[in-house]
Queue: 4 jobs
Job 1
Amino acid sequence: MPWSQAGSSKLTQSEAPSEAVESALQAAEMAVERERIRIAREIHDGLAADVAGAISLLKLYLQSDGPQADRENTIVGVLGILETQLAATREWLRSMRPDRLGPAHLVEAVRKLADEIGRLHAIRIEVWTSGPAERLSESQREVAYYIVREALNNIRKHSGAAVCRVRMAFDANPFLIEITDEGKGFMTNNGAGYGLVGMRERAAGIGGRLEVVTTLDRGTTVFLFGPT
């Protein structure tokens, strides 16, 4: 074999490990970035949302001059939020994974969430379901719960609505989650906050999609469509 060909062959062989290492490093960097996004989303959807709720109640307590019993109930609500979030944060730090929701627990968890937000913030939240939650996979149940939670927190913080409705149609194809309020609505070009981005990412992560329909002074509806 001529020298030039032998040298070319050796060069190609020496470059191969370098390319494999570079590819592995790029894959690792992408995995780390995805994990950072996931952790940021978990903190936003969980810890940050509950702390914001506690702060809102504390402001109400400080600004209120109502009956002492009502003020005490507000403080009890703050303590409840903080205690619940402390326990959830400890569990999250131990596992670094979101809580798992079994089929029998999804509707129960959504109703409990609706009851807590409704009681603490004087919002009537109606929850309707159809079909068995067992039709959803574990990851789909988690996404359904967190999108309902984020939508309800947005209603609590921004809409000013006194009434909202959660509909979970597990028997639809694809399954459909719908959260509707009768609040202020918002300009659609201002609706790309981190919470909405996270909701869209979660929906896409299970092969579904998220749609938002909003009209100023008439309210907002969030739709989660499952994968077809």
Job 2
Amino acid sequence: MANRLAAETSPYLRQHADNPVDWYPWGPEAFAEAARRDVPILLSVGYSTCHWCHVMAHESFEDQAVAEVMNARFVNVKVDREERPDVDAVYMDAVQALTGRGGWPMTVFLTPDGRPFYAGTYFPPGDRPGMPGFRRVLDAVHEAWTQRRAEVDAQADRLRDAIAEQMRLGAGPAASDLPDLDTVERRALAALGERFDAAHGGFGGTPKFPPTAALDLLLRLAVRRQGPERDEALEMVTTTLDAMAAGGIHDQIGGGFHRYSVDAFWLVPHFEKMLYDQAQLLGTYLRAWLVTGRARYRRVVESTIAYVLGDLRHPSGGICSARDADTAGVEGGTYLWDLAEIIEVCGDDAEAVIRHYGVTERGNFTDPHSGTTGNVLALRDPEAEPTPALERARARLRVRRAGRVQPGLDDKVLLGWNALWARSLAEAAAALGRPDWAAAARENVAFWRRELRRPDGRLLRSWQATAGARHLAYAEDYAACADALITLAELDD
């Protein structure tokens, strides 16, 4: 029998509607029940396309014996971090304060009044080196709650105070203490330069996420500064953008970008595709093309737009949130190629494809769960120009891939992410003279003005075709909407 999540607007929550766990959505009912029973809340936060969320769900939340323990000892609450970023942000601070790191799935144990006292991310079903098993964690938390309640309350108070202090320290200096703009720019350039990976692009170690905010700042500095500072800024931008565009993080066949790279050189991605990444990377590559004139950046702009409008656009005019990392239990299964299939599909053009993408019989990726192997396609030469043979082959490979089982689609439409997309799409339409893109941006804005605005004018965060819209929008949604509307007004001027 379905639990309380069956009627929720979030596809992620509905994925757990048939779990034997007696899940509650976030809300006063769950906290009242925890207070009535005098038990902790077990808060589990994730999102629809999260690979490790699926793994933990399969290993633990679908297990009848584990569910019985959870139901007997806790009130269990599921939250979609994309639908409720406010809840996610508060308890992610707690996870990071306790463990020094964060991520999803996020597992937090709360007192009935909402104070966290123990937290982590993914827990395996049984003990592993350096990782306690989930059943052991459940037993330990239950023992602490029933036998050492004073210690639990003291830990909750310390954690609450530590988070409050962190927020106070993060308030920043008074305006009178701020340095001038020139000093800020020089310090920013120096700080990014210290963390820059000159060999492979990006900043810092692995995993590597597309650093769109840093790259946009560097592009602005390249326009504002002169001489060596301009050259240094552009070098960091072009090295990173070239490496990402050539790597496996960039879908070489279907367009768009995966969420991050598990290695330093952008080859093997975490395969989920998020709308907010497409929106931000579209803007960054567009501005890089405008500054440098490099044709390969324009091709990335065009292929990213083609991907989103072709794969994520909902018939209503909204843009869906994401594609899953997994296909039928295989991480990246839709995107992998073996040598024999490349030869079969590409025919006379196969040799050019094999050289261009470095395809081997052994492959360059193995799914650790299924053992499936294959090639993640990536350019051997980032500066290589497409040839007629490669274009013919890519078209054939797209057709073949479209016939495979596709990753799951998170079809909720998030206001802030759609507004980010509409803004970038409108900018690209203006820069490249594409009235069809401008029309698509206007269609998207018309959708969220129609479906994500209440009669009183208040905006809503999330919409799903069968469930409608429910949660009020947040500050980030309003900011992104204002940005998109101003951009479209400039385009229509």
Job 3
Amino acid sequence: MLDVDIQFTRGSFHLAAKFTAPIPGVIALFGRSGCGKTTLVNLLAGLIDGATGRIELDGETWFDSTRGIKVKAEHRRIGYVFQDARLFPHYTVRGNLLYGAPPGVPSASAFDDVVQLLGLTALLERRPGRLSGGEKQRVALGRALLANPRLLLFDEPLASLDASRREEVLPYLEQLRDRYSIPMVYVSHQLDEVLRLATQMVVLDAGKAVAAGSLAAVSLQPALRNIVGSDAVGAVVEGRVAAIDADTALAIIAVGAGETLKVEARGLAIDQRLRLQLLARDLILALEEPRNISVRNHLRGTVRSITADGDADLIELDVAGAALLARITRESTRDLALKPGLPLWVLVKAVSVSALAGD
């Protein structure tokens, strides 16, 4: 468990963050620029003085101001990946990877595993000046991993990359998450990155941790909606690829207790775990199951709650135990006579569902 209860003030900025998150996994610190994400991750690393509160990792206290405990940064066994790779220009890729590794670490097999995982074999004798931005970040990832860390910290590691390089690095981050049981804290203001990588999420707004928990839980919180806006609001649901129909190019995803969703099958495999995002603006509600329409997904649901959202309503729904959100006009809420407990049908196009690699 990562247990954080920390306060820090510098000038007019005040940070107050309190949350617990299970480990291993990827804990995303999400919020707008300037909300305190980098400050918080530097406090976790032990790089900033002047805080009060407590930080514990897996039962070990790294910081406790009331007890006078402050474990030095170099003794916390932190691997840190920054926005820019910060490689040593006079070292080869091999030298950069091995820099900072404890004596006797890594073993030859561990080094080879990391090099293979990150696709660095052909780059080992190059110097950073001959690497692309994406290649540099992969080397930075490997260097942090080979330091034998207890905790990996990522401070917006993709922010300096263009879209193509960003897409190049993201799969390696997913493999890192799935291959190693090392707790990770990932700073980002890009929601799509968080949805692909994180297992837990902490939302920061103006220096305060305003929501924390699983992606599924936080995706329903008003605190997230206040940051990303109504168009990006949507539920996150875990699922598994139950079948693939080659004729229709659709995959059947098992979600909740007995429901399925059809999504585009591109790149998916049987039994693959997925994370699905269903945007609230894309869901359609009906009191009876429609017939002879192009929408492929007709799900049975129940209204959980109704919340005003600007000039519209957010309807929280229970679909086979999974929570979904629909954003509809107040006129629709009135005409359908929606209320908590009302059974209805939830419709969503197969092409509207974003399927992301699971953890």
Job 4
Amino acid sequence: MILKGADAARCFAKPDPAKAGLLVFGADGMRVALRRQEVVAALIGPEGPAEMRLTRMAAGDLRKEPSLLSDAMRAIGFFPGQRVVLVEDASDTLSETFAAMLAEWRPGDAQMVVTAGGLTGKSTLKGIFDRHPMAVSIGLYDDPPSREEVEAALRQNGLSKLDREAQDAVMSLARTLEPGDFRQLLEKVALYKLGDPDPLTASEVDALAPATIEAEVGDLVQVVAERRAAEVGALVRRLEGQGVQPVALCIGALRHFRTLYAMSTDSGSGARPRGNFRQQESLQRQSSLWGQKALESAMGDLVETDLSLRSTSRAPGMAMMERTLLRLAMTKG
């Protein structure tokens, strides 16, 4: 069974203990690790590891001795409650092992939680979990989290009182920061607001937001969006010197232009992202400067560049990225 979007988010928060297995895969290891941690905690609770109801095994060990999985799945625990067998870094080489376990699984056995890197549509491992009625397959892609996911994360951290501008600021940061950084931000905000009955404000969110390389990537993207082509080269060189990868620049630019596009198509319902509180005016100006057609074309260019960067091409990645950013910055309105 394949789950996506809101259904996937609900599964992570409240997985079905009657299922035989769950596969979580994606190219972003941090994103996969956070979701794996969430679903395991939801299945066995905070005391599960201490009560030995969690068995971890590496994919490499399982390849050497496939019987380890069936032994762990059927083991009788000392403590009552749901048991989980966690297999990390799985790949298609273990497809037959998981297929056999799913075929043999019976109620009362432990539940498998399997993590993997980026899997293609032709992946045999993914296909096994996709098709089995007692298994769940969830792919995590480099898309910004939905409003429902962000609101769930806020609730988990006890942050239920936010004014409208604070909500917009948090949504923008959720789309800008890496998953682990965003999680740390919410924990810091929750600690800051502990015992404070007043709603969280946008200025408080901005004050607590991390000032990291992401901010410098954001500066470069702002320059491109404002069509200040003369400043692009120097910023690219500085970020390259700090070790920033061209794919990271591409992801940052694509997220920004998606935000601008969402704002350009906003019907006034408030459902679209409006960016960081301090940046709203500049984002609105940039959105008007480009217009929907130009933004669609820009996103298409960035997607093509991203695919080229991730391919086996021998072209210098940063030079390719710089050329795309310069081309966008020189776009005429």
